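Following up on my earlier message about guanosine-5'-diphosphate. Here are the inputs again, as you asked, copied directly from the submission form:
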Amino acid sequence: MAFEGLSEKLSAAFKKLKQKGKLGEKDVKTAMREVRLALLEADVNYKVAKQFVDAVTERAVGAAVFESLTPAQQVIKIVHEELISLMGGEVSRLHIPSKPPCVIMMCGLQGSGKTTHSGKLGKLLKSQGHRPLLVACDVYRPAAIKQLQVVGEQAGVPVFEMGQGDPVEIAKKALGHAKDHGNDIVILDTAGRLHIDEALMAELAAIKAAVGPDEILLVIDSMTGQDAVSVAESFNQLLEITGVVLTKLDGDTRGGAALSVKAVTGKPIKFSGTGEKLDDLEPFYPDRMASRILGMGDVLTFIEKAQTQFDEKQQKAMEEKFRKNKFDLEDMLVQLDQMRNMGSLQQIVSMLPGGIGNKLSGADLDDRQMDQVRAIICSMTPEERAKPKLINPSRKRRIAAGSGTRVEDVNRLLKQFETMSKLMKQFSRPGKRRRMMPFM
Ligand code: GDP
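Thanks, got it. Here's what our run produced:
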């Protein structure tokens, strides 16, 4: 599977951090040495690997530590963010000008997946309501024209071809054909070679000059790692590409191309190919790719959610209340809502790192109970939430009726709250102070 080796090595580097309570400069540097080796082994360009590790180290050493995260989670978070930025940050979309036809020139070495991806792109754009036209500009191999016709038929996209004529003329004529037939997007499938050669580059430059493409997409095979990146560098120098299509990400790739191409060429990966079928095309999302490379989707989701849902300041205020035994039902409601925003109890537990999720998966985690507690608190007045002792039997009946529960349910909640208050007293004693998420 793609990135498996890299994910494993990164996990191993972070595991060592997890055993530490506090994060020092030495710990970060040791972990980063391993991260750097893992990147190099994954065929990441050595300059890119060095810059990456330097950037992470600088941020990790002396970073303000989020109190809701462990030091290891903190480093994982920084690595994740830096991976995203390495791959271009935001998803990079096609530039389709308002005045048709939009010309997309596909280029790349032979076998990289150019013809397949011309078809995939045609199919995708058609599904988005466009009327694309595929153009056979690879005139050197008769089989290439036939292949494009087969792909076009499968995609339901028309193909323009003029046999083995002059590719520049074919491209120009195709534009006229598109205008006459109402095609708003023209996709040029150009010729490839096994290696970059001058004649090929001159031909591509001539097509570019003749039709002024809106997009020049370079198709590269992710399985070829660093070679793909140097191909991208050369094509970019000679043609000034606008983006990259990274193919064969379904294969056993080490990740080097995905990670280095943006940093080396400055051009974003716009699409990724994930299989031989025409539907196997996806916009390239740097954040999803970073999560995949880290191989810790669940931990990352947890970090992200914990961070957005549990505002640090608010959390401190809650802890303070808890310590001073001032945590009331209103606060409980706030905590419940924060937890609810993170997902169902099962989901939250399944995201907890360190296998806690597995241990608890058999436990009785009933979201309805949580919702019931919420409904009961919501049916109380603000005074009652602050001082539950005020609630007399007639109010209990009203609260039960208001929340669609039974008096027993209200009693159970009040009893639980009382037990919790006793616990709070213990925590408020000196020496017993501990960091904790009050309700959890
Ligand atoms: P071209 O010479 O650049 O036009 O390359 P082709 O489009 O003919 O593709 C070369 C080979 O790679 C074909 O056998 C394709 O089926 C295969 N291929 C293309 N894209 C992908 C992909 O994303 N994943 C996989 N597994 N195979 C692909």
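One observation from looking it over: Confidence is low (pLDDT under 50) at residues 353-358, 431-440. Hope that helps, and feel free to reply on this thread.
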